[in-house]
What does this fold into?
Amino acid sequence: MANLKTSEKKSKAQSMGLHTEVLTGKTQQKFFNPDEAENFYYFGTYDVDFNKRTEIDVKNMDCREANKKIDELMKDGYGTIVIKNPQGKHSLGVGILNKLNLIFEGSLGYFGCGSMDGPIVRINGRVGWSCAENMMAGKVVIEKNAGSCFGAAIRGGDLICKGSVGARTGIDQKGGTIIIGGDAGAFTGFMMQRGRIIILGDVGINLGDSMYDGTIFVGGKIGSFGSDAVEAELTDSDQDWLKRKLKVAEIGENFDVSKMTKVVAGKKLWNYDALEPTEKKGAI
Amino acid sequence: MCGIAGLIHRGNTSNVGFELQGMLQALKHRGEDSTGYALYGKTDGENFIMRFKVGENVAEGSSSVKEDVSVYDERKKIVDSYLSELGAKVIKEDRILPYSLRYEIQYDKDLMEFSQKIESVEGVEILSMGKSLEVIKDLGNAEVVCNRYNLDKVVGTHAIGHARMATESGVDIKSAHPFWGYPFSDVSVVHNGQLTNYWNNRRVLENKGMRFMSECDSELIAVYLAEKMRNGATLEEGMKESLVGLDGVFTYFVATKDSLGMAKDTMAAKPLVLYESDDLVAMGSEEIAIRSILPQEIETYDPFDGEVKVWQI
It folds into this structure.
C-alpha cells in the first residue's frame, strides 16, 4: 500500500475540497501527457460528427440490441443520437468512450450510461439505480428523479439530476461533480474519496459516512452526519465555484450559495500510515 | 435477489391478475424459483375464500419430497371432516391441482381456532383466508403460475406479488411469498431483502401464540404485523414499528381488504420505484415492472429510507 502524507502546500484547489494527500512509495499518480496521445489507441472509440443526427426507437429492442445499434451508428459517424422509447430498460448507453451527443426521450432503468468516458447525455425522464456508475468524463443531465447509488464510483465529469435522488448518492466517488436539484437520501457520499457533491435540497441521515476526502455542499437540511464527516468553513472560493458550476449545470442559477453547508472528511478514520497494521495490532 | 410488485386501483376495478402477471414477468430475472400472487377480487362479502394446499409441488427444482397423490386425498378428507366439526359450511370447492384447493366457506367464528384446527393436519397449509383476498403461489415464473391457475381473468381492486430467488430457505410453496397475515382475514405480505433478527423475533412471537409455517425470514413480517394489529395497532402503526423492530434490509408491501402499503428500511438498501396518480398506484423493484402496464412516459420516484406509505382503494 502506498504511503500517504498530508501535503504541506495548500493550494486553492485543495481548499475547495480536492484531495490533500500526496502519494509516495510504489503507488504514484500518473497524469496523461497529451504529447504522447498519438502513441495510444483507445479501443472502441470513433470519430463522430455532431452535425450528423439520427433517431432510433428501442421499444422492441433489448438492451444489448440497443447498445449495439448505438455503437453501429457511432461507427458510421453519427455524433448526435436520439433514443426513443427507452421505457425504463436497464444498462442503456453504457461503455461509450468517445464524444457524442446522446439524448434519451424517456426514462432509463438500472446502470444507465455506466462506464462511459466523454459523451454528453441528456435524459428526458428518470433513471434507476447506479446511473453513470464509473463515469470517467463527460456530462449527464437527468430532467427528473434518480434512484439510489447515483454516480457510484465516478472518477470525472459532471452528473446532474434536476429532481431528487435515492440513497448512497456518490458512493465511492473518486472524482468529478454530482449536482442534485432536489433532495438526496441516506448515506450520501458514503466512502467517497474525491470529487464534489452539491445538493440544493435536503439530505438524509449519515451524510458523508466514512468519507476519505472530497467535499459535499448541502443547501437544505441535513438528517445527520455520518462517521468522520464534519462541517467546514464555506470560503469565498467555494462560493465562486458553486455559482459557476450551478450556472453551467443549468440548475439553481439563482440559489443563495452563501447559506450552503460544506461537509468534508474529519480524517480520523484514516489508517493509511506506514505503521499499519503492526502498530494497530500492538495497540489491540 | 427477488422482485416485488404491487398495484391499487383507487375507486375502480381492473383485470389485476393480468396486470400483476405482466409486472412480475418483467421482474423474472430477479428470480423465478417461485412466483406468488395476492389478488383482491370482487366477492359477495359474505363468504370466506380459503386457498390451501395439501402437499407440495415436487416438479424439477423443488426441494420437497415426492408424495403419492393418495396422501393428498387423505388429507383433504380430514380437512373436510374438520370443517364440519368447526361448523363451517363449504359452499363451493375447486381442486385446481392435486395439491392446491380453493374453498368458498360460510364461517362466522374465530379464525385463529379455525386455522389451528385445519393446519393441524400434516402437510396442510392455509395460503390465505379472506373475503376478498386469494393467495396463489407455486414454483415457476409469473407466466407459468398465471397459466397454471388461470389468473389472467381475475378482476379486482388491488394486488401484490413476488418473484422469488430462493436464498434463505427451500424452493417450495411454503417458502414462497405472499404470506398470509395469519390469523387476520385479507392480510398479505411480500418482501424483498433479508431479516437478520428473524429467530429472536420468531421465538418471541411463537411464545405469544403466533404461528410460523416456514423458515423463510419474510414470513416474520406478516406474523409481526398480525401480532401488532391483534394488539390494537393500525396497519400503518404496525408498519412504522417494524422499521425499528425488524433488523436487516427490506422493502415490503402489505395489503388488506381495502388498502395497500409499502415500507422501506432505514438504510434504503433494497430498491423500490413508485408511480402514484389519483386513480392508480403501481410499484415494483424496478421501473420496468410498472412500464409493463404503463408503457407511456410517467413520473416515478424512489421512496426514501425509512418511508412508510399506505393507500386506500
